[in-house]
Amino acid sequence: MKVPFYTGAVSFKRQWPLIAAKLDQILDQGLFTNGPVVKELERAMETFTGAKHAIAVGNATEALVIMLKAAGIGPGDEVIVPSFTFFASASSIVHAGAVPVFCDIDPVTYMLKPDELEDKVTARTKAIMPVHLFTQMADMKAICEIAEKHGLLVLEDSAEAISMFHEGKHAGIVGQAGVISFFPTKTLGAIGDAGLILTNRDDLAARARLLRLHGQEEDEPYVHHLVGTNSRMDDIQAAVLLARLQYLPSEIAKRSHWATLYDRLLADLPQVQTPHIRVREEAANPVYYVYLIEAEQRDELVEYLSEQGIGTETYYPIPLHLQPCFSHLGYEPGSMPHAEHACSRTVGLPMYPDLQEADVRAVCEAIRKFYESGGEG
Ligand SMILES: *Cc1c(COP(=O)(O)O)cnc(C)c1O
């Protein structure tokens, strides 16, 4: 039985009538980028997240760069970021002109380890960038306390964290600002690239709006207040996202349902560790963007599953402190043991709302067979 790692086709087709109605509006208006439907999405995301400002941009990589620049990060500054994360968390810091300072992770939640964080603070540190990965948020209480103690900004890579909350606040607005990615595989996916900046700060929002539009005010073209870039969201993507936003709570519930089934079916396999949700507050709400396991003989398992037609994704095979492009920063192998450990053992299993029970059972059965055969498949 084939189970792809991701397929957006089923839900996309089911949601098509709602999407099509919005597309008609765009065709009638003839405004295709940063137009009325994009503005409608911004207001809808402000309502959904409780953020004072939602600023639509081309993708979350650009959202991170714009957020950092809007927050005043630039040459001479250091930003502390976990080593185990998607590349854009760190590359955005470089694009803003600053230096990423890598930090090890909590081995259980895979996120920034507060007690290692404080050692990384120097006179040049300007901000901390926690990343909320896979299912849950970083330890924002501890991180914000450290930030406050040292007078640092907290700028969140909340690209994966739609609908994740910390003490009632949506990811991205626990610190000064955050981002959301609408890349097709994300919990709320467009049919192409799209991203968003979230903030409660008026000054940061105003600069971010300038930076996404070549430094211009929308109603005052050709006057450049800042040297910005072009990062517009397409109205077609906004239309898709507005339609899909209505299904988001039920789709997140379906993801939880499949996660619970995976948890149950994999529970007795000693070679596999299922995700651990750290309850930091009563209302901790995991959102299963990715169902990530730790597995013995990870690479052999991935190969075996692939031969069985089961898709997986290795998040992330190389820690950022050991990436070739950061070799000049001088980090040695072994310097971040938890991040390096996670990179060698973790793998994401198929996870999307339209999975079927038979799919989840087939994936778990194949994993069981792999280990029963002594790891040779
Ligand atoms: C997906 C992702 C991004 C980048 O988002 P894009 O919209 O693809 O540019 C950044 N950070 C993290 C943690 C992500 O998962």
UniProtKB/TrEMBL annotation:
Source organism: Xylanibacillus composti
Tagged with keyword Flavoprotein: no
Domain of life, per lineage: Bacteria
Entry similarity comment: Belongs to the DegT/DnrJ/EryC1 family.
InterPro entries named among the record's database cross-references: DegT/StrS_aminotransferase, PyrdxlP-dep_Trfase, PyrdxlP-dep_Trfase_major, PyrdxlP-dep_Trfase_small
GO process annotations (BP): polysaccharide biosynthetic process
Keyword Cytoplasm assigned: no
Cited CDD domains: AHBA_syn
Gene3D superfamilies named in the record: Aspartate Aminotransferase, domain 1, Type I PLP-dependent aspartate aminotransferase-like (Major domain)
Segment forming the signal sequence: none
Name of this protein: Pleiotropic regulatory protein
Modification N6-(pyridoxal phosphate)lysine, positions: 186
Molecular function, one GO term: pyridoxal phosphate binding
Enzyme active site: 186
Keywords annotated in UniProt: Pyridoxal phosphate
Gene: degT
